[in-house]
Each structure stands twice: as structure tokens, then as C-alpha cells.
Amino acid sequence: LQLQASGGGLVQPGGSLTLSCVVSGFTLNRPAVGWFRQAPGKEREGVSCLSTWNDITHYADAVKGRFTISRDTAKNTVYLQMTDLSPEDTAIYYCATDLGHSSSYALCTGRPSTWGAGTQVTVSS
User: 109 φ, ψ to 5°?
Assistant: First the structure.
């Protein structure tokens, strides 16, 4: 199993960014997949997760209404659209999955077994 995240960068407050996660070794029709982030000095947290078998999503309270998770099964890619970004969103963002988790909530609140390398998102003026 492999996951490769990309799309991070520097963006001004109020701006938008879309992250992509290309997966291989499994298909996006069964396990949950999700995005996590870790800010300096803070623990890693689940940002948004998707149950790929029933399209149920989970979002952390801090990002509800601003972030949207989606997938393109044909491209084996999971996206995280981020809008109205603030400096508090600055972190390294990771995508992750766990073949033992089909629930988006369980993945986001648990400890996924498989992680991709992170991509840095910096929100600053």
C-alpha cells in the first residue's frame, strides 16, 4: 500500500488550496481514507475522512464548512479542498488509510496503519 500526498504550499489567509493523494496497492471502494495534519508542537489530528464504500464523510469541527474531501476512483486519488484558510491551518498534511477501517469516523479518530509522506501547508501573509 502506498499513498503520495501533494499540493501543499504557501497561501494567504482567506485563500484556498487543494491537496491530492494518489494511492496504489488498493482501490478506493472499500477502506476509509483520510487526511490528517500535524502542526508544530501539536499532536497529529484527523482532519477529514471518507468511507469509500458508502461515501460517508467525517470532518473535524475546526474545518467543517471550509474543507471538502472527495475522491476520483478512476484516478486512484483522494482530494482535500481547503477554503477560507487561516494561520491555524498551518501544518504538515498527511493522507492515510487502514484496510481494517471502513468507517470514516473510526479512521479519523483512530490510528491508521498506513501513511503517506506529508505535504506542508503554510497560511501566512
Answer: -100, 0
